[in-house]
Structure formats: C-alpha cells, structure tokens
Protein: Bifunctional NAD(P)H-hydrate repair enzyme
Amino acid sequence: MKILSASQIRELDKLTISHKPISSIDLMETAACECVKWILQNLSTQNFTILAGRGNNGGDGLAIARLLHNQGKEVEVFWIENSPQISIDCQINHERLPKEIPITLLNAQNCNLHIPAESVCIDAIFGVGLSRPLEGWLADLLKKINNLPNLKIAIDIPSGMYADQPQPAESTIFRANYTLTFHQAKLNMLLPQTGNFAGKIAVLDIGLLKEYEREMPCNYFLLSENLVKSWYQERLPRPIFAHKGTFGHSLLVAGSLGKGGASILAAKACLLAGTGLLTLLVPPCNYSPLQTAVPEAMLLLSSAQNYIRNDNHDFSSFKAVGVGCGIGLHEETQVFLKNLLQKAQAPLVLDADALNILAQNPDWLSLLPVNSILTPHPKEFERLAGSWQNDHEALEKQTAFAQKYHCFVLFKGAYSRIATPQGKIFFNPTGNPAMATGGMGDVLAGIITALLAQGYSPEKALCIGVYAHGLAGDLAQQKRNAIAITPTMLLEELPIAFAKLSVS
Ligand SMILES: NC(=O)C1=CN([C@@H]2O[C@H](COP(=O)(O)OP(=O)(O)OC[C@H]3O[C@@H](n4cnc5c(N)ncnc54)[C@H](O)[C@@H]3O)[C@@H](O)[C@H]2O)[C@H](O)CC1
Ligand SMILES: [K+]
Structure:
C-alpha cells in the first residue's frame, strides 16, 4: 500500500470525483459514514463532542455529527473559525445539521469550551490542508483540549500535524487515542516525533480510485497483510517429500560471556521460523546453556573461551548467516567479522554488535556483500550513519545508506521501516509497545536468517520476518492484555503468526 503525499491524495481525490463519478459532497458523506461505522463498531459511548473547522475536515466533522445524532447519540458541536473562508462542502454540511444538535461558534474572541468528561472528543478542525503550524488562540485551544481526560479521536489526521513535511519543533498537535484516516496512513503518523499524537490508526476505505494511485510515483509503502501473505506463500505449501535439507542450513554467530541468552533466543526463533538445520558458532562459555536450552541446534565452538574469534571454520555449506547477537566488541571478534564480510558466500543478516563493530570500522562498510541485511535500532543506526535533526532527515539517511552500500536497512521501532537498495521504504504496521524489552531484536535476527535459509529473497525475508515478528508480538500482548511481554512469550506465538500468514 502506497503512502502518498498530501498533494497526491488531493489529486487522487479530484481524479476520483471526476472519473467515478461521485460528487465531492458525496465523497465527504462516504468518509463520514465510514467514521461513524468504525465508531459504532468500536465504542459504546453515548456522548460525542465534535470540534469542526471550516475546511473539508470540518465538513467531515459536521457530517459525522449528523450521522451520530441519527443513530441516537447525544452530540454537541463546536464550530471553530479556523479559516476566513468556509469550504462549500463544509457549508452544505452545516446546513444539513439537525436543529436539535447544539452548536457553539468558537473564535479568537470566544474560545471557551466545556466538554463533559464522559463525552468522546472528535477532532475535525484541520485535515491534510494544514499549511502552517497552529498559533495563537487555536494553539491554546488545542493545548487545553489535550489536557482533558476525554477519549479523543482525530479525523483523517490529528489537527496541527503535517501530513508529509518535517514538523516544526514545538508544534501544537491534537493528541489522539485513535486516528481514523482516509485511504492510507499519512507519512508523519508513522514517524517517531509525530506518530505518538495519532494514537492507534484505523485506515478507512472511502473508494478512491486505485487505478490512478498505481501511476503515482511513490517511494514509501505500508506493508499490508495481503502483500506479506502473498510473499510468504510463494514457498508454500511445503512439498510432501520435503526433508530438513529442503529448508536450508542457517548459521548464527552469537553470544559471548554474559550474553549467551541472545544466542538462545535467536536460535529458538530461527528454528520456529522454519530453518531446516541450525548451527551456532559460539564461545565455549555459552556451550552448556545452549545445548540444554536448544538441543535442536548444532554447535561450532570458538577457540577463545568467552568470545568469538576467527578460527577459519568452513562456512560454505550455510544458506544464510546471522551475525551479531550478543557477540560483544572484542578486537578478535572484530577481526572475525571483517573476515566474514570478505568471505561470505551466503546472504548475511547483521545485527547488534556486528553493527557496532561496523560503526567502529567504517572502512569495512565497503566490504558488505551486496544485498546484506542490517537491522539497527535508532542508536545503532546513528552510530553507523551519523545523527539527524528530524525524522525526515533520518529517513533520507536510511535511504541513502541502503543505496550507497547496496544493502537493506531495517530501522527498528514502532512502524519499523525497511529501506531497499532501490530507494524504497516499507513501513511495518504490526507490533506494539509491550515489545519494548531486551532480546526482541535477537528473536527478529533469528527469524530473518531462517527465512533467507528457506530461499526467500533478502527483501521478502526481511519484510515477512518483520511483519511476522510484530504479529507474534501482538498475539502475545493480546493474550494477557500485557503491558510488557518477553521474547520468550513472543516465541510461543511465532508458529501461530506464521500459520496466519500461510492462509489466504
Ligand atoms: N480524499 C480524501 O482524503 C478526502 C478528504 N476529505 C477531508 O478534507 C480534508 C482536507 O480539507 P481541506 O479543506 O483541504 O483542508 P483542512 O480542512 O485541513 O483545512 C482548512 C483550511 O484551513 C486553512 N489553514 C491551513 N493551515 C492553517 C493554519 N495553521 N491556521 C489557520 N488556517 C489554516 C487552509 O486554507 C485550509 O484550506 C481531509 O483531511 C479530509 O478530512 C473529504 O471530506 C473526503 C475525501
Ligand atoms: K483532524
């Protein structure tokens, strides 16, 4: 699914209106109907306060007010003079508002509002038409609303948030629990500095014409369940006469003194994600726990007791190699990594300390085999690529890095994003904040390595792996409504996540 810019969405809007054909007022009605459908399906609240502006986002809000009223809900409207003109469709929806709905005008002179605590607060002040940061009484009004305890829903985009441009520092933005967004999530909802204001995102289909979207140039995509399923199912069902050799032999280079757990987590994930065979290269200090916790794995031992060193093991039989989880930064481990980069014959996944070693030896980046997969969290990426002023600069750095070194860069976090050497970025919608616990990355590295070993291309292995990892995290979180989950809890759900991806 493409993540178009605000101007492309406006263009798609126009094309839909002229070619479908549908009038703009009817498109607005569809948008409002979809919002009300979502509200009725997801909330049992009786009272709603609509904050509507004077542009088309405000028009959506006024239509939502009418439709909720028609459903027997208690509705109150604050009509906010946020722009000198009233859009035509907003005016029509103002005229359509039933007289029973109380409406109060708010402007610079009169901006007092009282919202009962039990009322759900719906923000339809600004949509994607926002052209400058909110100031003065409007900014003060939003700050006041943000301090209220009410459940808050933003329509299309939280007011004050830019759709696709760098957000000026200190901007005032409506802080939503949910954002009901039309057609697609907007880029800034998926980025760390602004995304928090959107809360949970629900994408509502309002029937914009897909054939025109297809032709619009775009480098940003949101992974959809259907796309990930179709990629995963390319290698399914498993042949009846399959044997362990059919699904590849993975090598994980992981662990050091005090970090044997990382190798155990990566190993378990690699097995559950379907590698046919698994060997780990580990230091002897991790030998016993690994043999006990993961009896399925074979072990190669480093000749150094507590860390990995270059022992000239033969890696030629492995179909994929994952390196880095808990390996530490010992200088002999660094030599090992350099040697691996120079000699690797199988696709590589570089995680954690493998990335930190690269950051300490930037010259070695040129040794990265083409199409290697790097899986940094933001701090690791900063060590590799330098710091950034805002999320958009971080996105540019990620794209540039992937293109320069012809590798895939996964920037981990909420809406983890995957940069390809061709300049595309895929955002991942699965996962949740309960997954912010140590060891989650080790699990992910194991999963991606297993998918590579089974023969998926680096791009598909990475996208499927990230999606499945987040999905398993969502299943584990939902099982107990947990605030935090451990990687072990996620591992338990991994087979279910893959099973879900294996059915159409
Ligand atoms: N295809 C769709 O997605 C559909 C979208 N709809 C809704 O329409 C809005 C976009 O509406 P638009 O009239 O273009 O703009 P806004 O309502 O966001 O803004 C109103 C108006 O305000 C002015 N303005 C901009 N910035 C500021 C500012 N900082 N201070 C004061 N005034 C400002 C500017 O002139 C704007 O025009 C979209 O988000 C959807 O909610 C359709 O209803 C359905 C189809
Ligand atoms: K809004």
Q: What stands out?
A: Residues 57, 123-127, 154-159 surround potassium ion (ligand 2) (CB under 6 Å). Residues 6-218 form a domain with the Rossmann fold fold (CATH 3.40.50.10260).
